[in-house]
Design goal:
Layout lengths: L3 E5 L3 E7 L2 H6 L7 E3 L2 H9 L5 E5 L1 H11 L3 E5 L6 H12 L3 E2 L11 E7 L5 E6 L13 H4 L4 E5 L7 H15 L3 E5 L3 H17 L3 E5 H8 L4 H8 L5 E5 L5 E5 L2 E5 L13 H14 L4 H15 L9
Parallel strand pairs: 1-5, 1-9, 2-7, 3-8, 5-6, 9-10, 10-11, 11-12
Antiparallel strand pairs: 2-4, 7-8, 12-13, 13-14
Length: about 325
């Protein structure tokens, strides 16, 4: 029986667009940033672009897609509305063999969407309208969705006081009751800055695995250097995975630091999803009970493949 993983995250339709640098300055967008926008700004931007392609996105959904690409057994829960983008979202996951455990209904908000502007230097600038995706609540997730999985991956982006925090805790309680491992991705450095105390508490009390990049980890640990962060994290008996772009990756397991070099890439086209796909490779091997170095290597392989393509899909 192949091991199963369930991802829970923001269900966001990714809309890919190629633009020149002057488009960003004209629209007051900071290159390389991820900006949350309201519906009106989203509609205005949507009307000013030519859509290159659309697919089911959101960080955790991208990771589940990568696991399905590696022939793993991946499922996803995210909140959509039964509108045009919601239908496109569902169809996009089905096409790549990711099980989608969410029954969409007519919601008061539309399905979330992110416009990803790719400039000639391959940098991505994202404008995200969360729509109904951020309303995922404990009521949307029941025990039957969860119980036959081996790992649950939650994204830091989902953590906000109120409804999302309740949902997170609900999932953690169900996972513990069913002895399922819990992993969280730190999502982004600003997200960590906003919720640092909560995330640290989750790491200590609830998580089995944590993944983040070097900046996110340093923010979480409030350290200037990675080596200082690592020294602190060694004291915590968890598996911590840290990605470092061209400097490779490492994992801290029971006081031991395991390092892996990155894979050189000739032609970088788009950095979208590099971290998400690293997580796919790592998790697929982890589910297969591979050793940690193999988990890191497969993560690096997938990350190196995805940055040679536009978008966050290998298939």
């Amino acid at each position: 029986m192949s091991k199963k993983i369930l991802g829970i995250g923001n269900a966001i339709v990714d809309i890919f667009v190629k633009v020149e640098d002057n488009f960003l300055s004209k629209n007051n967008l900071i290159k390389g940033s991820m900006k949350l926008i309201e519906k009106k700004e989203f509609e205005n931007l949507k009307n000013a672009i030519e859509i290159e392609k659309i697919e089911a996105g959101g960080s955790v959904a991208n990771t589940m897609a990568g696991i399905a690409y590696l022939k793993g057994n991946a499922s996803f829960i995210g909140k959509i509305s039964s509108d045009e983008f919601g239908k496109a979202y569902k169809k996009s996951l089905k096409k790549i063999n990711v099980n989608f455990f969410y029954s969409e209904k007519n919601e008061n908000l539309p399905t979330g969407a992110s416009i990803i502007f790719i400039t000639p230097d391959s940098e991505r600038t994202m404008c995200t309208y969360l729509g109904v995706s951020s309303q995922l609540s404990a009521n949307d997730i029941n025990e039957s969705n969860i119980q036959d999985h081996d790992i649950i991956l939650l994204e830091g982006y989902l953590w906000d006081k109120g409804k999302s925090e309740e949902m997170f805790k609900h999932v953690i309680n169900l996972a513990k009751k069913n002895t399922i491992e819990i992993m969280m991705s730190l999502s982004d450095v600003f997200c960590v800055a906003r919720h640092r105390k909560d995330f640290f508490k989750l790491l200590i009390n609830d998580l089995n695995l944590l993944i983040g990049n070097e900046n996110e980890i340093n923010e979480l640990m409030q350290k200037k250097s990675l080596s200082d962060s690592i020294n602190e994290l060694k004291k915590i008996n968890k598996i911590i995975i840290i990605t470092r772009s061209e400097n490779g990756s490492l994992a801290i397991v029971n006081n031991e630091v395991i390092k892996c070099e990155s894979i050189r890439v000739k032609n970088i086209l788009d950095l979208t999803g590099a971290g998400d796909l690293f997580a796919s490779g790592f998790l697929k091997e982890y589910l297969d009970r591979s050793n940690i170095i193999k988990c890191l290597k497969t993560g690096s392989e997938l990350a190196s493949k995805i940055i040679e393509k536009v978008g966050a899909r290998l298939n």
